[in-house]
Amino acid sequence: xxxxxxxxxxxxxxxxxxxxxxxxxxxxxxxxxxxxxxxxxxxxxxxxxxxxxxxxxxxxxxxxxxxxxxxxxxxxxxxxxxxxxxxxxxxxxxxxxxxxxxxxxxxxxxxxxxxxxxxxxxxxxxxxxxxxxxxxxxxxxxxxxxxxxxxxxxxxxxxxxxxxxxxxxxxxxxxxxxxxxxxxxxxxxxxxxxxxxxxxxxxxxxxxxxxxxxxxxxxxxxxxxxxxxxxxxxxxxxxxxxxxxxxxxxxxxxxxxxxxxxxxxxxxxxxxxxxxxxxxxxxxxxxxxxxxxxxxxxxxxxxxxxxxxxxxxxxxxxxxxxxxxxxxxxxxxxxxxxxxxxxx
Length: 344
Ligand SMILES: [Zn+2]
Ligand SMILES: [Zn+2]
Known about the structure:
Blueprint: E1 2-8, E2 11-16, E3 27-36, H1 38-46, E4 55-56, E5 60-68, E6 82-85, E7 88-89, H2 95-98, E8 109-110, E9 118-121, H3 123-129, E10 130-132, H4 139-142, H5 145-157, E11 165-169, H6 173-185, E12 189-193, H7 197-205, E13 209-211, H8 218-225, E14 231-236, H9 241-250, E15 251-259, H10 273-277, E16 282-285, H11 291-302, E17 312-317, H12 321-329, E18 335-339
Helix pairs in contact: 5-6, 5-11, 8-9
Bound molecules: zinc ion (2 copies).
The site of one zinc ion has 6 residues, from α5.
């Protein structure tokens, strides 16, 4: 089968690789669409500790079930169904899972990369993380369930409450999904800092007050906008340590800062201890999601509870995968989709 193989930073090649088989209890999926995620782009730019080349990237997968192999009776999807697949599921039994920290499970079961014609869905993922795409939902939009699920997990971690003032640093696809997730959680005011004008427009259209961090001191702006109280929750949706500094300065007393954008290993953050001690500002981070977030995200997308207008800016065929990575790496697109089988 055809697949876009990641061969190392800056190099993705469309090659023939062996077609996978359905594992016992699992399924084989013909991929319809797979979204290009920030993690894929980061890996393409500078490598990633989780992905050793050569390998196939892509984890925002929607496809059609072409074969199941003795699935457990609790599996809710059938051959022929169009499904959205969580790229990994937790074990639900380890100590971290027992404490409800499913995204931190050390025994996750994973699917292989989705930038390929077929993907094998192992038994656990079929059982716990595979959901039928609701009728009428565009499969491209269904492929957004994974990034949205990551934001729902972060919003739950940082406890956005009704009426809260939230600052979102960065209005890329994840920043915009975070904005939508905070709206759904009942946030009162949404403040967004973003250097690119077209992204500020997207955030503004969604009801946020926006600022260009290149022109204005973000912390001072938030301080003015909140009469000195600062933001209740700040999500840092860019991978830059300076953005965390801004976030720590913009959070109000008792506020929380969530480092949502990944930073390279070894990155050190300078934190004013007074902010942590006297102002009780919490610094935390979020990564990934649990199947429940994924299911909720898919349901919100199907119900039209998330404004996805203008988020998918580019679509490429699998043959054009190298160009898709190049284009996404320039930062000029919001969400890029790779159409593989494109049915649905
Ligand atoms: Zn993703
Ligand atoms: Zn576990």
